From TrEMBL:
Keyword entries, A-Z: Transcription, Transcription regulation
SMART domains: DeoRC, HTH_DEOR
GO terms assigned for molecular function: DNA-binding transcription factor activity
Keyword Transcription regulation: yes
Coiled coil residues, start to end: none
Name by which UniProt lists this protein: DeoR family transcriptional regulator
Organism: Massilia cavernae
Lineage: Bacteria, Pseudomonadati, Pseudomonadota, Betaproteobacteria, Burkholderiales
Amino acid sequence: MRNTSQRRESILQVLVQQGSVQVTDLVDLFGVSAVTIRSDLSALESQGLATRSHGGAVLTRTPPTEHNIRQKDSINQQQKERIGAVAARLVQPGDNIIIDSGTTTISLARHLRDADQVTVMTNGLNIAWELADAPGVDLILTGGLLRKESLSIQGTQAEACLQAYNFDKLFLGVDGCDLQFGVTTHHEAEASLNHKMVERAKKIIVLTDASKFGRVSLHRIVQLDRVHTIITDASISPEYREGLLKLGIELIIAD
């Protein structure tokens, strides 16, 4: 039996393949009521991914394709490295921080190898490996289930681990950042864990190259009003530069 999130992901896949869907067809496909399918389509519409039509819905925008971590690591490498270097300057001796999994946040980890008296919690296996022998870093790795595509640890055990701690800063990697829909990710369990991270940190810092602006993935982490700082590269559009500043977000350009 599919849960709601899995069913909506599947409906979105059908939309991407066909361009439009009918409620009656989806009722037959998923074995649920028309009321349930209409609720699913409304949820996709609220995320800007679909537009309701008579008897169904049409695709509004194609969600970004999820790549595995090796593929992601080769995309916008120079921008990510500069973003990581700038982010590292925000970490002070004595800080307790969370570094989310990802290929932009791994750049931050590389620049923290010489940090002094910093405690890092991470759900990223690659980030933990990078900092495992850093002498000035006390490393905490969340428990949980390893998602091999992203080398991220997630699930209820990872979320429970966070509840015992309070952090000064969260460095968050994202798959999409949209002025209307906030910061998003492809995977439900990652979004849930990221949301818990937001709750445990005093300051939320998003690390993203400019290609992620205007993208909306299926699962929202938080709205932008919860974000304090965004570090990105110089190719950010004037629209997003102005929009983020209007929201009161500190925008740091890594160039």
